[in-house]
Amino acid sequence: xxxxLILNLLVIKLIGMSTSNMTEMVCLLxxxxxxxxxxxxxxxxxxxxxxxxxxxxxxxxxETYRNPVIILAENGMDQPGNATLPEVLxxxxxxxxxxxxxxNLKRAxxxxxxxxxxxxxxxxxxxxxxxxxxxxxxxxxxxxxNSKRFPKxxxxxxxxxxxxxxx
Length: 167
Description:
Elements: E1 4-8, H1 22-38, E2 40-41, E3 48-49, H2 51-64, E4 69-75, E5 79-80, H3 92-110, E6 115-120, E7 135-136, E8 140-142, E9 149-151, H4 153-166
Helix pairs in contact: 2-3
């Protein structure tokens, strides 16, 4: 069993189910259909916004691997890469994303998971390996023409919660 585990959590998906119980199968099917109808996407087609999935993933690791120390090394969502100033700085969806994911992480910790670190993906807009400049994950907007940087509302939100914790 690992003593510690580092997780990168960007996507939660149901990748399969196995059951021979008909009632359980119907319940899982209803759950899957309702999940498909009501989940939201970030900018990327593959990035679902499923905050309760963080709780489930961390709790699963806690229960399956005898509660190792967990560091969540990557968690975030993107905006369209063609978003421009000043609108791109009003990233309300990202603020709500982080609020809901961190709330679910706190819930897992309250239920006994040993989490010692959380890192938002990402600090700066950057060149994404598969998406290039078509997606912006940063809490700080980078103008790729001149490298100027502008904090988004999500950066100010993180600053506020970090200051509150340190006071």
